[in-house]
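Researcher: Last one for today. Full complex below.
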Amino acid sequence: MDIALRAVMGRFGRLLAAFTILISIFGAPILSQASAAQTDGSALIITGTVKNEKKPVEGVEFRITGNGIDEIATSNSEGKWLLEVQKKGIYQVEILLESLPKGVGLRDPEANIREANLTVTNTAAVLFPLGKDTRVIQPIGDQIIIRLFAGLNLGLLLAVAAIGISLIFGTTGLNNFAHGEMVTFGALFTWLFHVELKLPLLVAAAITIVLSAGFGWLQDSALWKPLRKRRLGLNQIMIVSIGLSIMLRQLYILFFQGDTKVLSSEYELVVLGPINTTSSSLVSMGLSVVALAFVAWFLTRTRIGKAARAVSDNASLAAATGINVERIIRIVWVMAGALTGLAGILYGLQFQANYLLGAQILLLLFAAVTLGGLGKALGATVGAMIIGFVVELSALFIPIDLKYAAALIILIVVLLVRPQGVLGKKQRIG
Amino acid sequence: MDILNILKLALGEMLSPTTITFVLCALGLAVHFGFTGLLNFGQAAFAAVGAYGMVISIDTLKLPLFLAVLMGLLCSIIFALILGIPTLRLRADYLAIVTIATAEVFRYFMTTIGFSKVTGGSNGLSQFGAEFWALNPIPEGNYNFGFVSYRADQLYVFMVGWGAVIIGALILRLLMRSPWGRVLKGIREDEDAVRSLGKNVFFYKLQALMIGGVFASIGGMIFVLNLSNVQPQVWTTNFTFTIWSVLLLGGAATILGPIAGGMIFIALISITQGIMGGLVELGLLPFLTQPDIAQIRLLLIGLSLMLLVIFRPQGLFGNKRETQFNV
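Model: Here's the assembly. Have a good evening.
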């Protein structure tokens, strides 16, 4: 959770924002307590909560200096610490790294001093996001197991999201750059129904999937089908999809604001050997496998699925054998919408959601689809698993903020040596 | 709502250094896409490579400005080689994905803490402008031109930037009317036909990628020199697609197109934003707030990209016969 969250948010420097939201939810009691203290006097309070992997950390020391004071505050069993000061002004808060438990460190090792601004308000919350201490080296075997697990998790999520791209490319030839926004759609609407409208998670997810399928239908009927009718070139349609993606992203900001949403905070920690994971991650992985198995069954065993593969293979030939190509494309869009919405829900539940979520993983999805061979649904799954493992395992060797770059470099390298992808048929590509 | 003020702002933005950057990048993209038919979705990276190449040469290698600019251009050419040699043999949509991926990879490398000693990490670099500003020949003070006025330093950037645009456009005009330019257009129309004439298509594409990249790099340099800082989060895919909008508005296979397109595009967006801001102020758009208006800008870029491609692929100044998207 912690590592993955960093992966998603760190890239845009939103880590702190995300964490502040997390803490503001978990740390709400301390803030209300502080404001209670403030009403009976006019005490000025510097406070904060230290948590690692959602568990409070006791005995962490903070040195608060400025405006003539130099004092130490220590976190209690709930991870809370607090210091009353007399003067308004700006204080420096330093976390004393020696007081942290073994194996725990700052997420941003350079940010061990932060400011507490008491010029306007009476309380200032100072937060030091904690994470695994990067200085402590775990046994390499454990590290690999942890990374493999994280890679499996990410790979499965990417696979569910990538199948849609692959199906759409297969049947229509379109590289849909607005696909990431379909992932975001799933995550944000689940948040809307579950967190804002207080519906049970399963109901919220079900409504979201129906809406996502509807979104796919709407996109095809209102935009892509008319464009195909106009005989617009594929590259032109691709640029239209880019425009659509930019537009949708801005609409999401307008309707959902730009902050990071927490979809669910109800989960249990599960420990499997060296792996710390959550029940929601395990459920999400299970659901991904079910969804992938369903797609595999659908494509190979049902009439419509077989027809979809026929259209992918050769649309004119499929039409000549009596397959209604436009109808198949519509079904593919609806299915892609539903699957991608599901991916968004699962992604959002594990890594939080904001308007950029889909845009952030879009290139990984393209990498997965291209790796597997454009237009092959099974290939997309294999490609997504490879990308998932590469992203997570690469973090063992290279700085963690470059792990997405590793996946994209793999994509570029694969295109050089095997442009048709791992499972793709050899064909003329240039 | 102050219409005059909105128009003034739009006029200011039309000639601003940001517009200059977009125009130069769009001229480069015109070479890539308009004349050669390459779907380059990583134009932001070319601008960034030029900018970072120059800034790091000044900041780390302590080179004088002139040499640093040359270094920036050299970096851009090397970048074009690295990008082009593997990808130019691929199908157009593969090229699109690889260029956009490379642009993101470059941005990751400029952001990572690992290289922050040289690149400044996510904070970027800002200590490099002294020599550029010292070369300003215009005496201090304010200069009035009718109803707009410029400070000496603004006028200086303005001269350097638009000077680069004019010289660049003239060079491009000569290039595109030369036999070399005709081969490029031939590649755009029918690659195999050009190949059958014994031309090395790959080599021509590589040259086009380099020349277009150099234009973008100059744009990137002007952008960072004007701000006196370079930050990695500027060079996103949104930057690239704003350039695409500019190019497609003006007309992809023209030289006037990117220039006029850039000015018109920026002005239109500024005016729309101004008018919407005014309407919000008057309470006529109750569902929007003032900060939302900033989001409208990108929304309009996305929308115009879609509408242009669907309804007017040749842009304002282009020739419909010259808009072969399928290469």
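Chain A is about 60% helix and 15% strand. Chain A has a mean pLDDT of 80.
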